[in-house]
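Contributing: when you submit paired examples, paste them exactly as shown. First protein:
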Amino acid sequence: MQTIMQKVDKNKPSSSGNSNGNMLGNFLKSNVRQYSMIISLIFIMVLFQVLTDGLLLKPLNITNLILQNSYILVLAIGMVLVIITGHIDLSVGSIAAFVGAISAILMVNYEIPTVVAVVLSLAIGALIGAWQGFWIAYVKVPAFIVTLAGMLLFRGLTMIVLEGKSIAPFPESFQKMSTGFMPDVFGGSGLHVTTLIIGIVLSALYVIGEISNRKNQIKHSLDVQPKGVFLAKMAATVVVLNLFTYSLAMYEGIPNILIILALLIIVYRFFTNRMKAGRHVYAIGGNEKAALLSGVKTKRVTFWVFVNMGVLSALSGLLFAARLNAATPKAGNLFELDAIAACFIGGASAYGGIGTVPGAIIGGLVMGIMNNGMSLLGLGIDWQQGIKGLVLLAAVAFDIYNKNKAS
């Protein structure tokens, strides 16, 4: 009997191929939002690389892309937390302009040391965020109204403190925050050797971390990516990372602003993925009443989300002022729209509860590459604004389509 059953089993078609196919299909379906924006970013890069005859990915232009979009990416990191909680912040551009003006008065007019002025500027950003967070979290005034009022208020205050004029120049130590580069400790000629070594080290740490995480997931019987997808993603990430650092090494190396951005991404990704407070942010955006009944202090979390947004708005204003080497009344104009667009293009939901920090960064890069590519092609600001508007509309429509399809 046993022999007969063995023969029958041998003749049965193997279901492992179907199982693997189903696993891959389910994985791609459940991660369509994440991978669609990565594919979109790659498509836009390739498109503009071809249209600009290779200018887009020149080492100099890659560095310029980082420097030009740094302050928007900083805002996007804070904005994605605001959007996840189900709110919006229209005041970030005006806050950035106001804090940039205050920093100029402190450093240029009163000659306060750079470090002290930066700390005071960030503290002012926190106070502004606390002011707005109080009205939103505790008084329950809609965030749209509070931050719209803040946009008008702090734009007006910027013009008042600057008296309609620009203040410049900033100390050289402050300018280096946005325009400086990491020194090459190995003294390479032609190539920035330190940057190349950092790329290799980061690649090794990434591979070790991914393998360790996968082993832990398997150990605890959690769902993992199909092995082929896992290896392909890891190999592609390593290749892209090293090509990126090689491009930077061909110019001046790693910009200081990129180090600041990398630290922010690491800290905020750890906060959203590993810390209880980060999970509370998602819980509020998913269902605030349910989160409150589950013991989440919803008012406190919302309040601190806006304090955090105030600090990052201040940091964005400092970075922009340092790059421009001046504080101007028109600084920060439309920053809020670029930051919001970056979050939605990067996969954040207009309904709250969904969004990631890496997604917001990818969305910001999509916007930045589009701006840069269209500028290289000689398109006017009118066409650029129109095209960006259509891209934003398409991103939100895609989100609504996915939500309706899931329900």
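Second protein:
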Amino acid sequence: MSDFHQNGIITDFHNLTRRSVEALEQELCQFARRRPMGLILPSLFSELEGPALSAIVDELVKVPYLNEIVIGLDRADREQFLYAREFFSRLPQHTRILWNDGPRLRALDAELEEHGLGALEPGKGRNVWYCAGYMLSSGRSTVVGLHDCDILTYERGLLARLMYPVAHPNFNYSFCKGYYPRIAEGKLNGRVSRLLVTPLLRALKTVCGPMPYLDYLDSFRYPLSGEFAMRSEVLEGIRMPADWGLEIGVLSELQRNYSLRQLCQVDIADAYDHKHQPVSEDDPDSGLNRMSLDISKALYRKLATQGITFSSEDFRTLKATYYRFALDLIEAYDHDATMNGLSLDRHSEEQAVELFASNLLEAGNLFMDNPRERPFIPSWNRVQAAVPDLLTRMHEAVELDNQGKV
């Protein structure tokens, strides 16, 4: 596939997919003696009933180097949590489920809200944040990976390739982002990354001028991928958005806190397919509609922290600039798909671009109308300063949920 991204800002590892899984796992087992590894799986209960997660668990059963697995379980009642305990019980690693809707974790959440430290809304970001807190409380892992639970093409080599750069004892990487071709069933996928993020970053460069931050984001081959690995200390200082801006927010925090020499991206799969979000044109609170709003706001917020000021006129100019870049890219994607024997529906692509362009204005209005919005969940460093024993009590609550009566 053609490459429409700039490269060279961060280290980019190619062709790890050519190494056998067994060879990678053998080395990772050696690395694990010095850098124990854990995995976070943020999950909705509905994903336990879907086609992907059971196969993912079957693959994870075979992974020899993982020290622990932490599952964040959202939207589950008591019976569903008990079902989840049984569902994940075949994992041989030290496995714990965070029942985020259970009374014990709800009580801790209410306490955090009293201190002004809780997540304001449920979502993937909140789920990952609580899992990160539990990882810190357990102290079992110095390298932590994360991936989604709806990957239909999952095989355990994906995880090995993701963990390798951060786990290697002679490497100095603190964070690794995974990427892969978004192709499935003969179609070119990855609409939000292709049709929103890439042209939006280029439009922002035109409207706001060249900025290291925008070049940095544009250097990632797939900035919206849900697969990354990091040193455990990254989890302490990072602030996470609670909404669909999680991935952009995490990358933004890393650019603020770490040298670019400590960040890398890696090719982790030859094929990748997962549950596709609907566009949801008529519902701004779901699907790609909501996702595009949250991602746009995340970018505006970050640029504001770097001294960029926006007005209504700026957002109108940005919309027009974005629209032109996006239409040009659709043509290039169409040619790319044709050359590779893939299908691409130009009509639906342009419909998505029209929705995203409209949402750039809406996100701008929301950004300007809510100057006191608290966009990030506080870092765990701040939480520990305010409530020193909270992580200890979280660990106890999770242990009681997993081993006792609920």
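If you have annotations for the second protein, write them as plain sentences, like these:
Confidence is low (pLDDT under 50) at residues 1-6.
The longest helix spans residues 312-339.
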